[in-house]
Amino acid sequence: MKFEDLLLEIGGFGRFQILILFILCLPRINLPMHFLLHNFLAATPSHHCAIPHQEEFVNLTTEEVLLISIPQEPDGTFRSCEMFSRPQFHLLLNSSLQPENDSIIQHCQHGWVYDHSQFTSTISTQWDLVCEQRGLNQATATFFFIGVTMGAVVFGYLSDRFGRKAMLLLSLVCAVVFGMLSAASVSYSMLAITRTLTGVALSGVSLIVLPLGMEWVDIQHRTFSGILTSIFWSIGNMLLAMVAYLVREWHWLLVAVTGPCLLSIVCLWWVPESARWLIANGKVKQAHRHLLRCARMNGRKDFAVSPEEDVPLTIYAQRIVLQRMATEKKPGRSYSYISLFRTPVLRKISLCSGAVWFGVAFSYYGMSMNLTGFGLNMYLSQFVFGIIEIPAKMIMYVLVNRIGRRQSQAWALILTGLCIGANVIIPKPFTSLRSVVAIMGKGFSEAAFTTVFLYTSELYPTVLRQNGMGYTSFVARLGGALAPLVFLLDEVWRSLPEVTYCGVAVCCGSVAFLLPETLNVRLPEGIEDIE
């Protein structure tokens, strides 16, 4: 007997599963508020070099002081990183006569002055992470995703070793601790370290939430459950835009996005451990207790109750079956990440799914962290990018059940790359067209992300599912860590970042055609089910 047969008897999608999915959606909302926080935490407002001895220019307006002190770009805006070594008073007579002698132009010597009309403070303004220090600003996101990458390895192994629920609770507690320490950072080094550790903690949440819910749901409702859970990521996306709009000071913004983890910790009390994991690890009594609770909550009144034990006879008779299932899963045997590459079919799945995850994350975060590149207000861009994800998920719900997981995954990622590439060709003045193409690309990107979570959780067997999710998440976070650094390539060629995102998405999307189809296929329990 397979676990799906037990689910059909106790209710594969009833009140029990709905309660679990709803509770697990709470931490899911919180994830994008941290994963995409860099857009607002490290936002760089317009700035120019601080001008010393401004009291000497009491007879000049602010605009005139800037005119004689700061070089101008060809479009008439003042440069952000350079200043004149001495005032150029002749520019008051004709501002178009910009000096051609570069010897009188120097880098900022006295710090910077920032426009605080949009942000009260960000880490850029706090520690002057601009101009020569711009790389450190982008590196803040990379540090976070390096933490997520390490967390994927750690929690992927630990959740298969010690259980899903315990590791999810540990992840949430650590996320609260390190999130609050990030908000209290007094130096850039402290912020970099605490954000990295926050990434480690939140990686566990990202990794465990979906499989824990999916392992309680029957085959028919697996896709619906995966899509439903992912919709709450989009809700978190939109909430981030609203929270960032209301909280313009970076310390309090970190507090605001970390606080909701406390609610998730409290609600996790009502979530049971995965019965699949318990059976696979020989913990039959605990699995039986949770299955009994599931049957009662789902109103399976047709179970007669034994006078000797307050246990439904149907489940009581299945205790031997549970023990047999546990024996078949060899609870004494331990699995590791190396197990993902030992057998030929698993090896192919692991290599191909790793490439797909890298492409999905690399292109998704490349688009998500370029809010100002499409002609919209950054808060509006964040909100619209969140809204467009919901219809994208609805469409994928239909497509993955009609044309299958493999085709949906491949074409969603390929079309993401084509939309990014199209914006390289479309001229900058066509702002509306560029915005429409970007929003379409964001929709395809989210569709690819939604599918890859569902698809991967179905590719790996129960005994290796969290190891598989940990490995693919590790590769994905490498993509997420590299994505913000690619923006620095615009100094080589302005369109090079977009061309890079486009090429990676199209190539990795093509790899998805090599994966097996999992539509209407039972979740594999052991490696023998895969091979």
Automatic annotation (TrEMBL):
Record field: transmembrane: 139-159, 166-186, 192-212, 224-246, 252-271, 349-367, 379-399, 411-430
Domain of life: Eukaryota
Lipid bilayer topology: Multi-pass membrane protein
Subcellular location(s) per record: Apical cell membrane; Basolateral cell membrane
Keywords: Cell membrane, Ion transport, Membrane, Transmembrane, Transmembrane helix, Transport
GO cellular component, one term: apical plasma membrane
Gene Ontology BP term (one): monoatomic ion transport
Keyword Transport: yes
A GO MF label: prostaglandin transmembrane transporter activity
Span of domain Major facilitator superfamily (MFS) profile: 87-519
Main location class: membrane
Recorded catalytic activity of this chain's protein: GDP(in) = GDP(out); 3',5'-cyclic GMP(in) = 3',5'-cyclic GMP(out); estrone 3-sulfate(out) = estrone 3-sulfate(in); guanosine(in) = guanosine(out)
PANTHER family noted in UniProt: SOLUTE CARRIER FAMILY 22 MEMBER
Similarity field: Belongs to the major facilitator (TC 2.A.1) superfamily. Organic cation transporter (TC 2.A.1.19) family.
Name of the molecule in the record: Solute carrier family 22 member 7
Species per Swiss-Prot/TrEMBL record: Chlamydotis macqueenii
Lineage of producing organism: Eukaryota, Metazoa, Chordata, Craniata, Vertebrata
